[in-house]
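FAQ: What does the model actually see?

It sees only this:
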Amino acid sequence: MIGYVTVGTNDLEKACAFYDAIAKELDTPRMMESDAFVAWGKPGGAAGIAATKPFDGNAASVGNGVMVALEAKDKEQVHRLYDIALAHGGTCEGKPGPRGDNFYAGYFRDPDGNKLNAFLMTGIPG
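And it is asked to produce this:
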């Protein structure tokens, strides 16, 4: 089971504005923070996410093929999360819509270029 996912940032203030807005829509508060990182999640809840300045002091960079998927409660929330992301410095990686028979998602990048999506399983495969 995944406890949390961490994404690197070169601008913690900008990353926090982005993730605070996403977390508000998901009703997920900040649960830890320091001068170098902020983490959002609920103890005993689903996996959380953290934005951090790299420990080694080098610049944060995007992992090719790495993506954080945020589970939405319905299609409307997929759209809201996508819109919130773009309104807070994110960029489009694929507008919300169906992806196959049982999956609905919108894809975006945060201000540092980390890829995320908001998704909903819309049926049972098979």
